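Budget justification note: compute hours in this period were largely spent on complex prediction jobs such as the one shown. Inputs:
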Amino acid sequence: MDMTDISALMGEDITAENYADIWVALPALAAAPLLGEARRLADSLGCYVHAVIADERLSVQAIAFGADRVHVAVDAGAFLAGQQPEFVFFSVNQNMQAARLAQRLRAGLITDARNVSTSGDSTRALLGSHPIYGGEYFLDFAITSPVKVATLDARALPEPYADLSRSGELVSAPDSAPAISRRPSAVRDLGLMEYSPYPWRPLTKAKVIVSAGRGVKDAEGFALVKQLAERLGAELAGDQSARDSGWVDEAHQVGVTAQEVAPDLYVAIGIRGDTMHNAAIARARQVIAIHSNPDAPIFAVADYGVVAAPKAFLPKLLEHLA
Amino acid sequence: MNILVILRAVQDPNGFTVNRRAQKVFVNREQFIINPSDKNALEAALSLATESDTVVAVALGDAPGEDALRQARAMGAGRALLVRDATLQNADATVVAAALRHLVNHLDETKLVLLGAEVLDADLAQVGPRLAAVLDWPFIEGAQQLEIHGSTIAAIAPQPDGFHKLEADLPAVVSVAPDSNQPRYAPGAKIINVYKDKHAVETHTPADLQLTEADLTPITEVRGESFPPERELGERLEGSPDELARQVAEVIRKI
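Corresponding output:
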């Protein structure tokens, strides 16, 4: 590799003046909230919003959601490397493309950015918060490079306002978008694999846990809980009473004296919720509780509570999840 | 050939508590651990290495990084390299990628760079793709199972529709998924030995690696910390059984 290659890879001498507007990679309509966010920032900065879409048929919606110009490109990252964006937004599942583009344009990048805004002053820095320690708290970043890239989680943003009377322009993209890598096919996809990760993973590290208690009544009820766990790809667990009934072993018992858990989602089914159990799920991100007794202590720690008999309720829930 | 593993020392989450109401992080014990998925990367490297390979553990920063490297040596890494510079511990992704590029060029004969797919305490998961871009090496993200066949590496990695088997030519950069393997324990005697051995960790300064002023200039800065809202009392869902089931299904789908 000679020096010109390196300087090309490290980005050319980039000065702020040439870089303008907010560019949004929009691979599918699910990312439309990014456009709403871009529109909001563009209105405060007084600049245009460009959408880079993979499918020309999305152009009408992209304009309605706030794009002033729409470009069609299969590989948004490669296309944007040939443009001069000031701000670029990707979806949070495109971190890799975003990082590659950021490196190419000597840009700073905030992945999974929350509360995105720009500094009011002349530096036009991009501000955003990035969750650390699994969302325990956030670091507030400011990007000061001429080009600024962020990836945003569309699910955490409000639905954008669609104005069908907005006007915008579909720009036909040049075919010769320069590839970011000169070896684009360097990673070969050998196809889908039958593979289930983490067969040995302890309950304490599970991301989703479905947990049963005495309220599921009998083996038949527990079978329904098991079905739900399989449907959600969740770890199956239980409280003390489930262990007493022989449904789970100690490694799958949730409780201060057994396993303390910290999943993203904890579904407590027929668990009354004694102190030992509720303390052990204190670090769960979201708790859904289903119990027939409206006064069960589990409802005090649940984000969503459903008063219903588990055996009657679970078949309905499985139906709706199908 | 060298297999490089990039390690980062992060503050042990058991050593601090986050108080959302006070909007503050209370540090009880200043202690560091190896970033958990970096440890999985180290384990992957140790099990991939053949007799002709050397596993080289690499860290940036000062004392915490050096500790991480000693642990790596005790676990079985053949060499440990520290780029000693206090500012590098909290450097941004462009600076880290630049430092690692210089290091890879300095070492030559590197066939694989492994790092963790998640970084607990900073926005540095982007270092992998950035490093791959500056080296113009292929990059595989979130690898679960790694195999080397001759001059190619194969990995199982998540794609939008499920797990795929991916293959790339070496040299390559691969980020290893957290919990994708069980990192081995370091034998106690080895831990004692690496702490006694003055030469267990080789140190470089940024100047040794020809890092320029431009390489070390950050373009992102941390301006502070913010906190998610305090946990609120949950809501009781109401409605007919069918309606309830629909609402719960919706909540589950959102996560």
